[in-house]
Amino acid sequence: MADTLPSLFELSEAELVTWCESHGERAFRSRQIRRWLFQNRAASFDEMLDLPQKLRQQLAEEFSFFCGEVVQQQVATDRTQKLLIRLPDGNTVECVLMRETNRRTVCISTQVGCAMGCVFCASGMLGLKRNLTRGEILEQILRVDRLLDDDERLTNIVVMGIGEPLQNLPQLLPVLEEVTADSGLAMSPRRVTISTVGLPERIRELATLNKPFNLAVSLHAATDELRNELVPVNDKIGVESILAAADEYFQITGRRITYEYVLLGGVNDQPKHAHQLADLLAERNAHVNLIPMNDVETLPFREPSQPETENFAAILESRGTAATVRKRKGADIDAACGQLRLKKEQTDSLPIVHS
Fold it and tell me: Which residue has better confidence, 110 or 301?
């Protein structure tokens, strides 16, 4: 198991300055440490060669570097990589690196499990256990960053892994501010997308903070009747309430909303569903991201056919609603969100791969 010392990633920039000063070091030492963490991709305190040996030793005595442990790593033929990280308390969480021509995207998790209960998603099949800490969220980003070649850099962050991000904003937002800061990874905040199942009050809370992040709402159905079946928490919320909150987010931030729509073969992928969705989003500055279902062995849903998918997108476009079909990444590994963690929890027999 990983070291049980607190993670250095739990400290903010200001807290790291305070720690250095409390150990008789000047503030510039904290900047050196952060360069090793964020720019130089150090894997241990020993690699921080411009720090005095005494300081490196103090860091090692008081903090773990990575608090988690990679227990499985999968690599797809398209070079998508998924990590399963075991945390000090024994829980596991997933993160993914997706490579495209001009993009290197990390998909991160915010909770251990999920309480939303979407019936087609592996993430919530074991329920919600707890929120992740800021250090546990940041560790996912920095571990994925270290999978890249020397000439590669992360370009995008999508908060679309395990968990409902808006239920853990106090831990998530400081991480996003860290990695978009010049002293962090200096990533553009406009290349950060937070995905939510649609919690109106939390959407409004995020809007009032007026952060320059993108919002994606996981809709999956245009009517309450169907959405109640697919997303059980919807029966306490309602589609119109979600859209009203999303409209407010757009009005306050000026950021166009993306509506994610997982296409389930024979369930929500028919022409009538496309027309219902177009009706719902008519006259809204919205974009629909269509996501063909990733098969999960234990779930009774199937991936839609390519003609069904293309026809659904064409109907939306013909009705004036912008739509794209998400490219499948990692199709030959456990690509569905939460699937690798689910298998591990069910078998509890994965070999440890030291990284």
Answer: 110
Share of the chain above pLDDT 90, in %: 83
Class at the top of the CATH hierarchy for domain 8-62: mainly alpha
Per-residue pLDDT band for 353 (boundaries 50, 70, 90) equals: very low
Q: How far apart are alpha carbons 83 and 86 in whole angstroms?
A: 10
What are the backbone dihedrals phi and psi of residue 93, each rounded to the nearest 5 degrees, phi first? Answer: -145, 155
Q: Is 337 marked active-site?
A: yes
Q: Cα–chain-centroid distance for residue 56?
A: 32
**Do residues 112 and 91 make contact, with C-beta atoms less than 8 angstroms apart?**
yes
Q: Which residue has the tokens 């009774």?
A: 300
Superfamily (CATH) of domain 95-337 = Aldolase class I (3.20.20.70)
In this structure, the strands spanning 128-131 and 111-113 are antiparallel
Rounded Cα distance between 354 and 337, Å, is 23
- Which of 94, 164, 178, 308 is the catalytic position? 94
SS3 60: helix
210-238 core/surface letters (b: 16 or more CB in 10 A; e: else) = ebebbbbbbbbbbeeebbbebbebbeebe
Cβ neighbours around 355 below 10 Å, total: 14
Distance between CA atoms of 222 and 320, rounded to whole angstroms? 16
pLDDT at 335 over 60: no
| Catalytic pick among 67, 95, 107, 337 | 337
- Dihedral (CA of 285, 251, 196, 230) sign: negative
Ordered by start, the domain boundaries in the chain are 8-62, 95-337
Judge residue 52's burial from the number of C-beta atoms within 10 Å of its C-beta, 0-12 exposed, 13-18 middle, 19 or more buried: exposed
- Residues 62, 80: Cα–Cα separation, whole Å: 35
